[in-house]
Amino acid sequence: MKLVICIIIDRNLDAILLVEQIPNCGYWFPFDQVKIGETRTVTAQRIANKICPFDVEFISVFKVRCGDSLPCLRNMQTYYLFSKAEKSTNVNKLNTTNAVWMTFDQIKIAIKNRELLGLEPYVILQNILERQRMYGWDDFTTGRQLFEEPNLQLIDCKPVEANNQSVGTAQEQLINSAKFSHKIQERVFKEFYSSTFPSEYMSFQSFSEVMDNKLNGLEKTKIQAYFRAFDTQQNNYLTYMEYLLGLAAMDPNTSHGGTPAELRCRYIFRFYNIKNNGYMSIEEFRELHGDVQNLKAGKPNGDLPAYSEVLTAFNSFNLQDNSNLSLNEFLNSVGQLKYRGTSVLFRLPMNTKELLRIYKRFADIKIDNPSDQVQNEINYELADHCVTLKKSGLLHKVESLRSMSYNNQFSTTTEETLKQLPRSLSEEIFDRRTIATDIQEMLRFFEKHDQTKEALTWSSNVLSNLGRSIITLCREIREIIKCEPRCLKISSPCYILGDIHGNYQDLICFEKCLWRATPLLSPASFLFLGDYVDRGIYGLEVIIYLLATKFQCPKKVLLLRGNHEIRKIQQIFSFYK
Hints:
Shape: globular
Distance between the termini: 64 Å
Radius of gyration: 29 Å
Strand content: 5-15%
């Protein structure tokens, strides 16, 4: 792709003309593609004349950025420098309402307010003004590199030494821990550049867009905190390397021990340090401590802990009265295990490579590989837990290798590796402390016949706990369903089940035939077509069973809304009454 970018400057005001060509994505230089039959110079003049009703004078080609050596999204950008004619009578009139003149100080304010698409206007205007003071307006070529050829900087994943000591820089150890191969790094670059094009910097708006499919429910409301954590240089805009390292710090594979843990703790600190001043107040720490406790309890949307509990934990850092927690004190306390639980914070719901996608910020970006799949790469993972089933197929227990009784047979290297392993997705799903598994255990009790009750009946001592659990489950499920599109795209294999209408016995029969050991261990997805209640007498049990299963496997269990999930229809039948 051949792109022409116009730098139009007002010599009297030392200001440049910026245009918001992409709605709600910030101001940047006017640009366009070279059309068939046009030269770059003709394209540049066409762009300038379209925006400026006054004459503009061509000064020089400012730079040529050739991206042919990039592994993807190759393009050539030619920057043309123009000056507004000094004798023009229409100096304040522009042919578009979304164009504005900005001085250097105004650009600084725009950066602070995140009003630019990228940082190029700041960098280029600063360079122009410096060169003008040195050489004047008549010489923009002396001592300046006109041609730029950017290269994608790939970080090598170095193997762990035999003595279990990681090698390389801190960045290399973080990338190695996240298992970011060169192929994955290229895919991250595709996602980054396709969302920021034509800029080389990621704005907050672009960051919000690319993170939308990576954050679940309530986490999407914390997008400001995620951006602050990624923005290590506090520029209000991200480079590709900052985006890559931020994703590596969030990846579930990344160890929470050694150098990767220290880097992760720096991200965590910035995430909760709202003022971003290097000192965390007790109010900010309360958010951190609350998230640790809620995530460990399997309740990501739980309430904040009591202030007295937070104060006790805050005092464990041995701070003076009324003082704030510094970054170094936080790193030392976590490193010395004086404060525990931070390993569950700042994590993606699944591996990064499963969440990457391409954005067409500019209409004619050419994608080298339309399917955007990593080819010829086989990924192996260490099995860090064991799922045991009964003969009937029911789940019996889940054991982590770290807690198995025969772990004394492991080598020293294996023991150290196991200590650094994060919790796996399966462990989180089979965790007995989640609200979903609590509901499922109550339903198993509901099914059974014993001395105290008949089968398919509730005992009075269970009903009060059941009510509280259902309310909590509904809150959790609401956040999951809010993030789902109205039109679901489903791939085979998929079982389609419809119109259960309160028939709990049929639902259990489906379970025994199709997902005896939970849908997670089935290769298929399960689509329910609605009409879960009314007519049958077990509408409540059916719907809470399905919601609990949806909570455990949100991507494999898909629930549509039938007409009996509309209040007016329910009022005619039995479930509402």
